[in-house]
Design brief:
This protein has 240 residues and is α+β, with helices and mostly antiparallel strands. The protein contains 8 helices and 10 strands. A hairpin with a 3-residue loop joins strand 1 and strand 2. The chain is elongated, with a radius of gyration of 22 Å.
Amino acid sequence: MSDLAASEQAYSRLAESIRRGVYQPGRRLPGERALAEELQVSRVTIRKALGRLQAEGTVVASAQQGWFVRSPTASQPPTVLQTFTEMARARGLHATSRILESTIRPAALEEATRLHIAPAADVLYLERLRGMGGRPLCLDRSTMPLAMVEPLAQTDLTDRSLYETLETLCGIEVFRSSYSVLAEAADERLAELLEIPLGSPVLVGSEISYTRDDTPINLGCAMHRGDAYRFEADLFRPQA
């Protein structure tokens, strides 16, 4: 078999294994030597196949740890308020949501101020682990005035879009969001939930969401895997 044919075959077999889920998103591939033995080709051929997959964005290389299958990337475009579920659908993926906590409690003073509700008024607090393609990608926290979203307290939100359910059950349409992003290091609990090493970078998106009449409806905080989230924006210099 020619080098070109061997490289094409190795590429095709690796790509098919990744497509079928033999090698899961975010997971490390076997070493080059092991792959070469499995596919009965040289390590040079394996490197060429992996390089092609890397150029296509299917795998990523780590100098110390080897090759990894790229995780799905959630990308938030500028000026567009897009839910996690909508981002997944745009990529042909299914968004998952595991409920970690659903609690009714009094609002903290800062929460009450930002939500424009009375101090210690009841809020619904939700903590959800969100994922795409079978991989956990972010820990999502939401705090909402109970008086406005009471039907949610009796609703199972597993694998459901919060904003779509708000509109369906409560007649509330989220119109805009004030949003900021900062970087942090994953603590022990977050690292375990997102299946990343302790101290790995996470991107924390904080927001206040509003209805069309500028009523604040949700204090949100989403902690994304640093390797699985991208915020895009077009920046312009001011004109004189």
